[in-house]
Amino acid sequence: MSASVEMIVRLACFLGVFTVMAVWELFSPRRVLKEAKGTRWLSNLALVVINTIAVRLLLPITAMAAALFAESRQWGVLTLIAWPLWVEVILSVLLFDLAIYLQHVMFHAVPLFWRLHKVHHADMDIDVTTGLRFHTLEILLSAVIKLGVVVLLGPPAIAVVLFEVLLNGTSMFNHSNVRLPAGVDRIVRCVLVTPDMHRVHHSVLRRETNSNFGFNLPWWDFLLGTYIAQPSEGHDKMDIGLAQYRDPSQVERLPGMLLMPLDSEVEESR
């Protein structure tokens, strides 16, 4: 797969999932949003544009290119055994997802990384755009970590593209403000992080913020003891965001979002 084809596939999947979730939110919202969408969406989506440009300009290689490079030199633990391609793809996706889970835990546990990640958590509402709202430095750091994981694993390039499409799509899905029937949610969250499951992670309560770290697969939270089934206040009454950041002019406008890591309110918010 060429770089141009990869870009087209990823953009098409992004636009498709974003459109579906935005329409779903409109017709079947889970919660009443506290703030108007206009400013939030403009700022969150502007951050996506900035992040995309920054990654393209500042990183000389994509994850797919890194996978092709590693494959050409037989680097990575997956190259030690001649696995069938479908086994390599499944193993790669599972290991990538575990790596993202561990990275997410690290971004909460390490104060320096939390300074960046709190931009994501400071959103006082949660919807499809929250799944795209990450500080530019966090996106760049995540991209570098991803490159390291690619070189360490040596996955097929198709597995890298597949995982990035899945991660982007499931992030928009599980951050979206959509209503799933309770019975459907219980079944789906056995194999995929649902909006109700991940919403707990965006609670202002620290214990709930430090739970449900999965973006794609829920199994790591189940196995490693970070799973909380429901928010203590219930989904309709729970407060979203961070207790220290309740000023919309700071958390919903692009300049405030970009400057938030410079704020010294770290330990109190984590």
From TrEMBL:
InterPro entries, per the entry: Fatty_acid_hydroxylase (IPR006694), Sterol_Desaturase_Related (IPR050307)
Protein's GO biological process: lipid biosynthetic process
One protein family per Pfam: FA_hydroxylase
GO molecular function: iron ion binding; oxidoreductase activity
Ranges that cross the membrane: 7-27, 47-70, 77-102, 139-167
UniProt keyword list: Membrane, Transmembrane, Transmembrane helix
Gene Ontology cellular component terms for the protein in this record: membrane
Keyword Mitochondrion recorded: no
Compartment(s): Membrane
Top-level lineage group: Bacteria
Predominant localisation class: membrane
Coiled-coil residues: none
Record carries keyword Transmembrane: yes
Record-annotated Fatty acid hydroxylase domain positions: 90-226
PANTHER family assigned: STEROL DESATURASE (PTHR11863)
Designated name of the protein: Fatty acid hydroxylase
Organism encoding this protein: Blastopirellula marina
